[in-house]
Amino acid sequence: MKTQSCVVKGAKNVDIMTQDIQYDDNPEQTLIQIIRGGICGSDLHYYQHGKIGNYEIKHPMVLGHEVIGRVVKTHSSRLKIGQKVAINPSKPCLQCKYCLNGESNQCENMRFFGSAMYDPHVDGGFTQFKVVDTAQCIDYPQDAPDEVMVFAEPLAVCIHAVKQAGDISGKKVFISGVGPIGCLVVAAAKVLGAKEIICTDLSQRCLDIAHQMGATKTLLAHEDFTEYAQHKGEFDITFEASGHPSSIERCLTVTKAKGKIIQIGMGANVPNFPIMSLIAKEIQWIGSFRFVEEFNTAVEWLGTGKLDPLPLLSATFPYQELEQALITAGNKNDIAKVQLIFTE
């Protein structure tokens, strides 16, 4: 069987390639026709730089891990031919100590869609047809809009991040950096009962979207935060979603003593890290990485309309216009999320 795939070959080098796929009637696998996919920051890194960190593209790799599709062939009794499903891009080994302890996001042998971590690389979901493990197929109400359900994976990341903070109901929350992930953290925090959600960013456009997603108040990064730094800080929980050193330092300033900072943003190391603030205020600084069962939660929330991610959707392109879609997605001044359409 043939499929057209969106591949990256190196920095600024992408193509639409015809590939062979084989579905061997494996009872644990399902053949999916991909419907839509969302372009993520990692896809942009592979396109712009040909690598992420030390993981460099060594041969053509299919991009994409935010995808939904339609069942073409399956042996599963819970799935039906033609049914739309969200595809969980995580494929943990289920055998390492983390998987056995229910912490599969920390799997030592994770095979995550669209990753150059291994050689050969793990192909992603930006392709017309893909064979996946049946367990990766999560069903949802069939009348839910395609453009909404594509947000399942990034929303899962954000639900996991909010849950890292524990019970946030009635809490005062600060979010620094409201790109797509920060905005989805806003929405998730609102659903989970945050009393007040205050956001900051360099971009007024991003702040306007955050307001649409449920932020109580928004502040440009150059504005005065003095009132939130008084009395050892104002916020019970802070989500750092930019990764910039100045943002991390601000989060330490405005988080109250005994509060929590959830670190989502990835960036450079922080020079002259103000460790005394962390120590003296007894702040808990907690990392957040991917998701576990939160993918199913995200599918359920989106499928039932518990939140609306569409303020983030900036543009859609047919998959044949992959490079233009990536260039557009890289325009952070004007664009939030871009989706590729594989079939209607």
Brief synopsis:
With 344 residues, the protein is an alpha/beta fold.
Could you describe the 3D structure shown?
The protein has eleven helices and 18 strands. It is α/β, with parallel strands linked by helices and 344 residues long. The chain folds into two domains: 2-151 and 309-341, Alpha-Beta Complex (Quinone Oxidoreductase, Chain A, domain 1); 158-287, 3-Layer(aba) Sandwich (Rossmann fold), CATH 3.40.50. Strands 3, 7, 8, 9, 10, 17 and 18 form a seven-stranded mixed sheet that branches. Strand 1 (2-10) and strand 2 (13-20) form a beta hairpin. Helix 4 packs across helix 5, helix 4 (152-164) crosses helix 10 and helix 5 (180-191) runs parallel beside helix 6. The radius of gyration is 20 Å and the shape is globular. The relative contact order is 0.16. One of its GO terms (molecular function) is oxidoreductase activity. Residues 180-302 form the Alcohol dehydrogenase-like C-terminal domain. Belongs to the zinc-containing alcohol dehydrogenase family.
